[in-house]
Amino acid sequence: MIEHDVRVHPSSDRLPRQEQLAWKIAELAADPVPVRADVTDMVINRIIDNAAVAVASVNRRPVVTARGQALARPDSRGAAVIGAATDVRVAPEWAAWANGVAVRELDYHDTFLAADYSHPGDNIPPLLAVAQHLGADGNQLTRAIATAYEVQVDLVTGICLHEHKIDHIAHLGPSVAAGLGTLLEATPEVIYQAVGQALHTTTTTRQSRKGEISSWKAYAPAFAGKVAIEAMDRALRGEGAPAPIYEGEDGFIAWLLSGPAAAYTVPLPGPGEAKAAILRTYTKEHSAEYQSQALIDLARRMREQIGDLSRIESVLIRTSHHTHYVIGTGANDPQKLDPTASRETLDHSIMYIFAVALQDGRWHHVDSYAPRRAARPDTVDLWHRITTVEDPAWTERYHAAEPEFGGRVEITLTDGTVVADELGVADAHPRGARPFARGNYLDKFGTLAAGVVSAAEQTRFTELVQRLPELTAAEVRQLTVTVDEVKLADAPEGLF
């Protein structure tokens, strides 16, 4: 890996294009390095993972709305929409939109946390949609996904957005554009312009993940994917982007991040070096914010230690800065303690999540968020007895070379006894007690597709995707999942 220093330059410097981060990303995307076998295997895992969470959300209102918008843009060449029949085709940017919302809705797919947050699986819907539209084969799609993961993980490693309340889709737009560049075998010049446009048009605030969290939480990554496709289309037609997009004196770093004196270090593979960042990412066993994964597992473990939960006086979670201030009491969001809060808000309340996991000994993507479940009096009582604090040791562990995203829980009982335990990484994490492997991804798909997708369709999809590198263009166009056991809900009426 080569570490690139990125800082603001006055316009008078006339920073050469070859020294700009967007150009370096473009060169990475244009590098025809082969994809390693272990990377290919993980790409397949993540396509399976995305399909699983997408079919589980297929009739949730935000997904129904996005699908309705996509189906209003038929395109005989186009791309498939998850849930619909395989012969239904829509414009690729709208397929990316609909499928991206379906993948993101349940907050149940893969994650990478470093200087910032990310869900790199969000790259797959737009890349798959364009591959289907253009007739790319499985090898081309695999290479594109490897590039996109590499770029997003490297940006997330080097540049913190949330510190400045910028949403993490600002790293996703450029990574999708880079992946599209690889898919299209575009020149560095074209990819450079698309990356710049994608960053410029996907910079939004984190209010989408604060306070009253709405369906835009699911829409935001899909928006970034759609915008990146449109950016690449313009770049292919010869249109340009603001530049230097990262380093300019009125650019991204100078005014939206740490300012004119700031300096960032972004690691990128050198020429001929494998794009293997996907192996640093991890998926979710539980449908909840990633920083709650280890704490859900810990709650299930501590439940057995406590026995009678009515004896709990209070619960203190010692955890990292990120967990305390984003999903803990440090966020100072009253909505995180509100039994009538939206699913999206409850998903970002570790107090709620830990209470339910402790009481139920499990976490379910539907049942655990049901309004009746959230309003249960004994749950509300326990929920409101839980507080979080930042523990510098856990913040250090969060930022370590081998990061840990858990915490230490101290449960005080009514007789004064303190039951304490801690867990650094989730059981499903690569360094966890039960690391996810291909069988786990297939099991997750089978569980979430049950009652929604027929057994024959499940088999067709899983057998197809596991041959990804050798798929023909015609087979890539069939790389979707049709819901044929339940009726797809109709979208509410809009403009189109």
UniProtKB/TrEMBL annotation:
Residues of the MmgE/PrpD N-terminal domain: 19-261
Stretch forming the signal peptide: none
Record's keyword annotation contains rRNA processing: no
GO molecular function: 2-methylcitrate dehydratase activity
Keywords: Lyase
Enzyme nomenclature, EC number: 4.2.1.79
Entry-linked Pfam families: MmgE_PrpD_C, MmgE_PrpD_N
Catalytic activities: (2S,3S)-2-methylcitrate = 2-methyl-cis-aconitate + H2O
Tagged with keyword Amino-acid biosynthesis: no
Top-level taxonomic group: Bacteria
Residue span(s) of domain MmgE/PrpD C-terminal: 286-468
Database matches in Gene3D superfamilies: 2-methylcitrate dehydratase PrpD (1.10.4100.10)
Subunit structure: Monomer.
Stated family: Belongs to the PrpD family.
Name under which the protein is recorded: 2-methylcitrate dehydratase
Organism: Kribbella sandramycini
Top-level taxonomy: Bacteria, Bacillati, Actinomycetota, Actinomycetes, Propionibacteriales
